[in-house]
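Final report, closing paragraph on structural work. Over the funding period we assembled a curated collection of sequence-structure pairs, and we close with a single example.
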Amino acid sequence: MIKPRVFYTLGLWLLLPYIFFHLMWRARRQPEYLKHVAERFGFYAIHSDKPVIWLHTVSVGETRAAASLVKRLQENYPGHQLLLTHTTPTGREAGKQLYGANVLQVYLPYDYPFAVRSFLHHFRPCVGVLLETEIWFNLIHFCHDEKVPLLLLNARLSEKSSARYARYPNLVRAGLHELSAIAAQSAADAERLTTLGGKDVSVMGNLKFDIEPPQVMLELGRQLRFQFGLDRKILLAASTREGEEEILLNAINPLKIPGLLTVIVPRHPQRFADVEAMLVQRGFRFQRRSENCTIAPETQVVLGDSMGEMFAYYVACDIAFIGGSLLPLGGQNLIEACAVGKPVLIGPHTYNFTQASQLAVAGGAALRVQDATELVRTLKDLLSNPDQMARIGHAGQVFVSANRGATERALFHIGKSLS
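Its predicted structure, as stored:
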């Protein structure tokens, strides 16, 4: 009987021409996609003379979420070299900003057998960690074959993703069985992974709760607040996705809230130009964060066209709306805003962060709105009630503190594999 992974690999080979097209297409807005292309096929210029602990952090969110784990691994295993692999240029840039030369960074190869084997033979990791939902079947198989312990930690699996994986039960079950350990963010995630075939799936919590606001970002946030205007009311629209900016501004503009400044930080940097074009077309008075100057009193919108400063934006705002949630896009991480004690607004679509969103709303750390009209009505009510804003902000800090501990559980699993 032919193994399901054979058909999976054959499908990958059929997709090979599309991969080059995809890289060139993405490079139209992010030229970085055409850098380090050889790494995506298992060819690397850098190497380590130390034993390697490897973490796969796909993009920005996973890279930032790994900060507490990276720090503890460096403290606990000073004789090892940390290697971070990424899939996106923005994830790689985030790692560079966060960790500098303290870690090695490369792209994870595409899941072709030759590329995966080349990666494993080049770096020879002592242990590998896949964060969140990264299930690559050849990677898992060849790690198992080469006796490299591979762990799936901080794992999350939405109902939508679970249903998609369930279409290929034999392939998924075989892959999950070859992982050395699986630790999920929540009991619901663990149940879905177990249903798909995961063995002894534990619950570790969410690494994002363990993140600490860097002191440099706290100071930058205070500077940004001074630039924005100490007497202005600041709404931060954080990690917005396509279409949300216009919906939000269309709802806010008619209210003419005195002194309101809306700071928009798109989730993906390749969209900075698109959002700027929309602001120009709609006649909004705006300035760019990259100009790094005092915001004029008549300015209505600041376009947050910078990378790696989200904590600073949260510090500088009065209220944070978390993007990706007004439209059915799954939402983005609300934990960082809660960690710095800011009232949080989220839309109805948060399936990518189901547990965190539900806990935040239940604990009074976030308010859920159903559409842009309700969002701006809630915004107006909050801005007229500073005591309520303070209560929500404090509840956010309590919410984050109560859910810490995932880093210790991750270290336990990694330590078992290294012993």
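DSSP finds 19 helices and 14 strands in the chain. The chain has two domains: 4-206+405-418, 215-402. We thank the funder for supporting this effort.
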